[in-house]
Automatic annotation (TrEMBL):
Record family assignment: Belongs to the FGGY kinase family.
Catalytic activity reported: D-xylulose + ATP = D-xylulose 5-phosphate + ADP + H(+)
Residue stretches making up the Carbohydrate kinase FGGY N-terminal domain: 3-247
Enzyme class: transferase
Lineage: Bacteria, Bacillati, Bacillota, Negativicutes, Selenomonadales
Keyword Transferase: yes
A single GO molecular function term of this UniProt record: ATP binding
Organism encoding this protein: Pectinatus cerevisiiphilus
UniProt protein name: Xylulose kinase
Length: 503
């Protein structure tokens, strides 16, 4: 029997899953680590924490499974995107990693836009300059910590730092590199034009591979530390959302998934590089060689429900029952439309389609008849309206979705899935497996090592559908009208948000 490892190096924890060649889970382990915020709006992590978590979880799954190291043919790496890891000439980490949710680089985004031009930047990188992306972080270090920039010999992304620790290779792959804002997205290679205009030395960057390609093998040093074999290959892997797409079978035209985690994502596969000239959605290279994906992001999806749980629905408690289950049960008793209560989920500003850091959350239509249950359902509907905004941009770009998968914590809610089905006017499905990104990169490892023929056929064989929600016509019609009002509210409040920010 052959085995495959999938590592998901996330923001809060690293999860390692050992699969057999039928992609059944043999063992799993995870380890948490801290996030540091030295100043308001900053977010950093120590790459050594990721390394230790990766090492410990690999050791744990090997101990639990007792699988012979030589039987593990390949390893796939997934992880949080955009984080900046800088190494010196001795391969020591120079400074803590500035990660995806850090907001310090607004001035550097203006600098990038000025140097390259807003239109040209979108043509090459498929995105406007954003604080979350890596290029602006590189410029921030150069502008504010020149002594650290002068020491920099290598720039890596979070999962690619773990790859280096495992193999000694400086490598990345197209899906994660897409989020650096240095990659030519249509051509799937580093952009010499961008690098030249931003005065970033190409030698600092890793070699770019396709996601299933073998990038190296476990080094003797890491084999000794972890218990793995030096015969085990490490493939390119993928950024977290691209890996989740493989793990949910979103590998063909017409397929998409919606994730409701802390943030929310609508992600669609495309065989050609479709780019929104307004920069409202992200276009990245996907983990299927020669293909791309387009995704819209809403910043406070599950976060909105968590905020409600922590501050409003504090009495939804019952022994041995998850508060979210109780909240879902209460919301399910409220009619479609929450008795004309609408929620705008802009607790953290918004990305798609508004790119507005100043907009804030709103309950509109609140009256004396409304209860906590109304507010819970309104939040779920408001998040779904926001995800519908993302979906509308994809449709505007000519992307047709026949099959929508639901994942993330919110995707476990039957009510939320039904609301999404009604708003999207298509079937919304779940999967039997829940390993997501770790499963996705393990499949990539199977392709790279020859266990599977290719990504598409592997997903067709291995990804199994669970439940299915079908649109309810009457609710579909209501939400169509409700979405029109929802969109109008942002337009009416846009100037007020700005006034509030300057109050």
């Amino acid at each position: 029997m052959n085995y495959l490892l999938g590592l998901d190096i996330g923001t809060s924890a690293t999860k390692t899953v050992l699969f057999n060649e039928h992609m059944q889970v043999e063992a799993t382990a995870s380890e948490n680590y801290p996030l540091y915020q030295p100043q308001n709006g900053w977010a950093e992590q120590n790459p050594i924490d990721w390394y230790n978590a990766s090492l410990h979880t690999i050791q744990a799954v090997l101990a639990k499974s007792k699988v012979a190291p030589d039987a593990i043919k390949g390893i796939g790496l997934s992880g949080q995107m955009h984080g900046l890891v800088m190494l010196d000439s001795n391969n020591a980490v120079i400074r803590p990693s500035i990660i995806w949710c850090d907001q310090r680089t607004a001035d550097e985004c203006k600098e990038i836009t000025k140097e390259i031009g807003a239109k040209r930047l979108i043509e090459i990188t498929a995105n406007p300059a954003l604080t979350g992306f890596t290029a602006s972080k590189i410029l921030w270090v150069r502008n504010h910590e020149p002594q650290n920039y002068a020491k920099c010999a290598h720039i890596l992304l979070p999962k690619d730092y773990i790859r280096f620790c495992m193999t000694g290779e400086y490598a990345t792959e197209v899906s994660d590199a897409s989020g650096m804002q240095l990659l030519d997205i249509p051509k799937r290679c580093w952009s010499d034009e961008i690098l030249e205009k931003l005065a970033i030395d190409k030698k600092l960057l890793a070699k770019v591979y396709e996601s299933p390609d073998i990038t190296g093998y476990i080094s003797e040093k890491f084999a000794k530390a972890s218990g793995l074999s030096t015969k085990t290959a490490v493939v390119g892997g993928a950024g977290d959302n691209a890996a989740a797409a493989i793990g949910t079978g979103i590998v063909k035209e017409g397929r998409a998934f919606t994730t409701i985690g802390t943030s929310g994502v609508v992600f669609a596969h495309t065989d050609k590089p479709l780019i929104d000239p307004k920069g409202r959605v992200h276009t990245f290279c996907c983990a299927v060689p020669g293909c791309w994906h387009v995704m819209g992001v809403t910043l406070a999806a599950g976060l909105s429900l968590k905020w409600c749980r922590d501050n409003i629905a504090t009495d939804f408690k019952e022994k041995d029952k998850d508060p979210y289950v109780l909240m879902n049960e209460a919301a399910a008793k409220v009619p479609c439309g929450s008795d004309k209560l609408i929620y705008l989920p802009y607790l953290m500003g918004e990305r798609t389609p508004h790119l507005d850091p100043e907009c804030r959350g709103v309950f509109f239509g609140l009256s004396a008849i409304h209860t906590k249950a109304n507010m819970i359902r309104a939040i779920m509907e408001g998040v779904a309206y926001s995800l519908s905004d993302c979906y509308d941009v994809l449709k505007e770009m000519g992307i047709t979705v026949n099959e929508m998968m639901a994942c993330g914590g919110g995707g476990k809610s039957p009510l939320w899935r039904q609301i999404l089905s009604d708003m999207f006017a298509c079937k919304v499905k779940t999967l039997t497996a829940e390993e997501g990104p770790a499963l996705g990169v393990a499949i990539l490892a199977g392709v790279g090592t020859g266990i599977f023929k290719d990504v598409v056929s592997a997903c067709d064989e291995l990804i199994k559908v669970g439940s299915v929600c079908t649109p309810i016509q009457a609710e579909q019609m209501y939400y169509k009208k409700g979405h029109t009002l929802y969109k109008k509210l942002y337009t009416q409040l846009k100037d007020c948000y700005h006034d509030l920010a300057n109050l």
